[in-house]
Structure formats: C-alpha cells, structure tokens
Amino acid sequence: MWDFAESTVEDVALLRQRYEALTDSVRQLIDATLRTEVGDDVVASAKAEIDAATAKLRSHQRADSLGISVTPDGGTVAWGNVAIGPRNPLAPPLEVVHDSPIRAHFDTRLGAAYEGPPGHLHGGYGALVLDHLLGHVASYGSVDTAVATGTISFRYLRPTRLGPMRAEAEIQDTDGRKIFVTGHLADEEGVSVTAEGVFIALKRAPEDLPERA
Amino acid sequence: MWDFAESTVEDVALLRQRYEALTDSVRQLIDATLRTEVGDDVVASAKAEIDAATAKLRSHQRADSLGISVTPDGGTVAWGNVAIGPRNPLAPPLEVVHDSPIRAHFDTRLGAAYEGPPGHLHGGYGALVLDHLLGHVASYGSVDTAVATGTISFRYLRPTRLGPMRAEAEIQDTDGRKIFVTGHLADEEGVSVTAEGVFIALKRAPEDLPERA
Q1: Does the interface ipTM go beyond 0.95?
Q2: Under an 8 A CB cutoff, do A83 and B124 touch?
Q3: How do residues B14-43 score in pLDDT, each as one tens digit?
Q4: Closest to A135 (Cα-Cα) out of A106, A162, A155
Q5: How far B200 CA sits from the closest chain A CA (Å)?
Q6: pTM, whole model, 2 decimals?
Q7: Is B131 in contact with B149 (CB distance < 8 Å)?
C-alpha cells in the first residue's frame, strides 16, 4: 500500500503527476504494440528498450496490488483500478462525472485495444464499464460503506462502434440494503447496451477500511 | 487488416511469434508501471525509453484495429481482441480450451492490473471474461455464422481473489436462433460469479466475413 501517512495534499498531487505521465506513455505503447507492422529488427530493438524500462521500474516496487488509500484530505483513491486507475495502463481511464447524488456519466474514447467484433467494442468490455459506473453511482458518498454488486444484467441492442462513447447511470430505488440502478452505453449512433443492477450496501469492518493518513 | 493473402501457415506462425514476444514484454511493463515506487529521475529515464520504443513501433503501423482474419489453413485469428488477443497487451490473454462441442473453460492468473476491491478482481472484469467465454462456446465451430450477445446476467456470490482462477461455460439449450449458455468463474476457494446468457446466431453477410487468404 502506498503510504500517505507522512504526505500532504500537495505530495499526493505530485506523486499522481509523476506516475500518471508514465502511465500515459505506456497507454501509447500499448496502442503502438497492437498496430505496428515493423519487422524483426525494429521489434527486437523496441523490445530491448521496453525490457530495460521494466527493469528500472522494478528496482523499487511494492509487493502487491495498489488497493484503495485514503488521502490527507479524507478522499479515497484507487490508482490501480482496472477501470478508473490513473496508474493502471489498462484503464482508459474512465473519469466519472456526477450530475446529481443519484446520477453520473462518463465520456471516453475506446480504440483498437478494446476490440471484440471487428471495428467494435468487445461486448464484455461494455459490461465492465457499465458495472463500474452503476456500482460507482450506488456507492457515491460513502467511505465506511462498501457496495457489492449482487446481480447485474445487460441487454445488447447492437454492437458499439469503437471511438467516442458515453455511459450514464442512475439510482432508481432502494429497499433496505438493496440499491437498484439502471444505465446504458451509447456510441455516436445512440444507445447500444442497457444495464440493470442490484447492489448491496455492506457496512465495512474497521480492518477492511482503507488506510487513513 | 493484416493481409495473409500471400502468407503460408509458417509465415503466420513466425509473425505471431515476433509480435507475441513484444506483447509479453509490454505486459511485464504494465505490471511494473503499476507497482513501481521509483523516484522522478528513474521514472523520467524509463519514460524516455518507452517513448522511444513507441516511436519505433509507430514508424510503420496499420491505420485501424486488427479485426478478425482468416489464416491460410482456414482458421480465424483475433490477434487484437481485448480478452484473448496474443497481440493485445490488455489481454491476459485468455486461452480457451474446448472440453466438448458444447463446453469450454480457461485457466488464468490475474494480478494487480485487474483489481477492483483491494486484493480482488474488478467485478466488471469478471463479467468481461465470462461474456467472452459464454460467447465463445455459443459460436464454436462456425466461421460464416456470427453470434451476438442478446442478454447476459451475472450473480456475484462473493469477491474473486486476485491470482489463479478458472472459468467454465456450457450450452444448455437452443431455440431457433437463440442459444442458452451458463457458466461461472471460480478462484481457489470455489465459485464466485455465475452467468447466464442468451446469444443470437446471425448469418453473416458476405461483406462482413473476415478476409480469406
């Protein structure tokens, strides 16, 4: 766990800046790796540089995954999250925007690295981003309450074209610990996938709370 | 589209070998980027090497995503697929094994880059891999038939621990163009997510068929 105990808000911002720039470079490399048509010699030369960079970065690294940390200002960060993590090259990353306490959306652009059917988003990746957004809406504003996905269903109206896309989600109802959320994913031609989820609010045990600085 | 028209089976195998080694190096770099704790100087030095490698690879690259190609032996490859693509650094990659014409599984190990809740797989990523496996089982053996996900539902029994995991899927029934498939994801403690999907068999239009070498 990155330890923010001795950090200020400014320290955390600088750390994020340092690693975010690196992560953005790796996102570019991922796209180039996928689309390149260079020959053996150039591949070997690029691979040697990549391996050298990996060795440098591994010279001092944490043993485990990044988890969730509480920042000095009382917020939480999930820098390694596969959907939203600014330090995770696999994450586009998604930047969720709240429209109200029960409603949120994100706009993103997903390219060649997110392909399933030719020219289109992998249906499972659509499920990933919608699961994330619906869960985010369900858990908004609670630090000491964890929200777990109970069930989630997706209806695919048509394939989603790679490129710009937008997702929206909204809490529809609650019943005890259950939170009912719906949402959709849309490309430039309109809605392509709809989602319905039931999330469960769980009181976190103190030992499961993120480290507080 | 990578053009296999002039290729032999051996050519395709060599191409795959060339780019697979590069992609595996990038997968290592992704993990190192996520977990590194090195300071500004080392980050800057590693970033310069990564950017240099990206520029080399981009010196000759395809304009679009990789799509699906037919190989000289009549098989299909989806080298860029976000779940299974051997050329996609985002893909673990999953290697689906057929147990029978209606049943398949994969074993994989998902680490820090696939995190949602601390130490656990992102629930949406579980949905991604199950959607892929169920769809794969539904479409097994058909080149001129595309299978689209109609609806798919997931039930989360508990969080899936990062590390070794296994998924299984099986066709339960068919009704006209509908194919009913169930499956699950399990970590070392047992089943953590179950899935039920309805897939639709679509006759592909000739212009939508992958390029045939």
Answers
A1: no
A2: yes
A3: 999 999 999 999 999 999 999 999 999 999
A4: A106
A5: 11
A6: 0.92
A7: yes
The interaxial angle of helices A9-35 and B9-35, nearest 10 deg, is 180
Residue type, B129: V
Asked if residue B67 lies in contact with residue B80, where contact means CB atoms within 8 angstroms, the answer is yes
Residues β-bridged to residue A164: A109
How many Å apart are CA A182 and CA A199, to the nearest integer?
11
B173 contact A CB<8A: no
CB-CB neighbours of A194 under 10 Å: 17
In SS3 terms, B48-72 reads as HHHHHHHHHHHCCECCCCCCCEECC
pLDDT tens figures, A30-43: 999 999 999 999 99
CA proximity to A195, closest of A108, A128, A117: A128
Which tokens go with A25? 């470079």
For residue B158, the 8-state DSSP code is: S
Structural contact between residues B192 and B158, judged by C-beta atoms closer than 8 angstroms: yes
Q: Which residues of B touch A62 (CB under 8 A)?
A: 35, 37
Helix (H) or strand (E) segment spanning residue A41: helix A40-58
What string of H, E and C letters represents the secondary structure of B133-186?
HHHHHHHCCCCCEEEEEEEEEEEECCCCECEEEEEEEEEEEEECCEEEEEEEEE
Report the alpha-carbon angle B90-B95-B97, nearest 5: 160
Segment holding B129, helix H or strand E: helix B123-139
Instruction: Write out pLDDT tens, residues A156-183.
Output: 999 999 999 999 999 999 999 999 999 9
Mutate to test the interface with B, among A3, A7, A25, A88 (most CBs of B within 10 A): A25
Strands A163-175 and A178-187: antiparallel
Taking 3-state DSSP, the helix, strand and coil percentages for chain A, each rounded to the nearest 5, stand at 30, 35, 35
B90 interaction partners in chain A (CB closer than 8 Å): 30, 90, 113-114
- B98/B164 Cα distance (integer angstroms): 19
